[in-house]
Amino acid sequence: MASQEGKYNIKAVSKMLGIQAGTLRAWERRYSIIQPKRNEAGHRLYTDEHIYIIKWLMNKIKHGFTISQAVGLLDHHGNNIDEFVMENSSQKDLAVQLADELLAALLSFQENKAKEVLDRAFSLFTIEKVTIDILGSLLVKIGHMWENQKITVAHEHYATSFLKAKIGNVIYHLPVDGYRPKVLAVCGLKETHELGLLIFTLYLRQKGFEVIYLGEGIPPEDLSVVIDEIDPKLLVVSCTMEEHLSDTLKWLEVVEKEYPCLQIGLGGLGIEYLSNDIKTKFKDMIIGNTKTDWEQWIHKKRKHEKRPLLNH
């Protein structure tokens, strides 16, 4: 179910969806189906469900409906978009189908087809579901296919470049909560795969965190300069390749000693290769690779750390 928390202001929604703010205000006045929440200053805040509804309405208009017809269609089905849009197929099945279609398009270098599939996904699902469930699962699949030599480096690079651009665009338009702590996001030592880090960055941005995204290729000495300059509360590191794990873990131990108040999180597909002993040793750092893992990790930090990640 889509989140009921108001977190997108009207400017962010306008940029994300390509719809005029004036149109959103007009729909709000004329149709009770979209009623954004208000913050203490009286500014509109849209929930994930509102984003879902607006996307669905825009998709219907694109296919020839008037706005009143689209709203009437939705009203007739009790505003239950999930059941109405999915009809006899579950969201999970359709998400898997779209992920497979997107993968096939990317691996055959069909950019227009990939864009069409992704646009269809965004018209049916929330931003969170598309990016975390569909693109996230696709990331894992592409990684495994490349490691098992089922696709070439060229295929992996093309798919990665496409997904990175799309995810980065979504991240750029998400609003930041000034009361949330700063987060520094960087790849592990010698690590060049960024998609896992981008997915987690997106998750944090959706939670309102200000994330300074550095990506790959950052020397340890440069990272220290950035930490000293911006004083982040959390350092997030992603490692995909097994051969980079050892150096990355040694580096993180040094960082932990140098910055004892800095909370460190380690994610990426590479943690699957860690032995149980190593996982136990670094258990407080390991974030995991699923949304559930991420939520549990943040909750644990919020509960036990002296400098909680989430302000009450």
From TrEMBL:
Domain B12-binding: 180-308
Name of this protein: MerR family transcriptional regulator
Annotated InterPro entries: Cbl-bd_cap (IPR003759), Cobalamin-bd (IPR006158), Cobalamin-bd_sf (IPR036724), DNA-bd_dom_put_sf (IPR009061), MerR-type_HTH_dom (IPR000551), MerR_fam (IPR047057), Meth_synthase_dom (IPR036594)
Keywords: DNA-binding, Transcription, Transcription regulation
CDD domains for the chain: HTH_MlrA-CarA
Domain HTH merR-type intervals: 7-76
Domain of life of the native organism: Bacteria
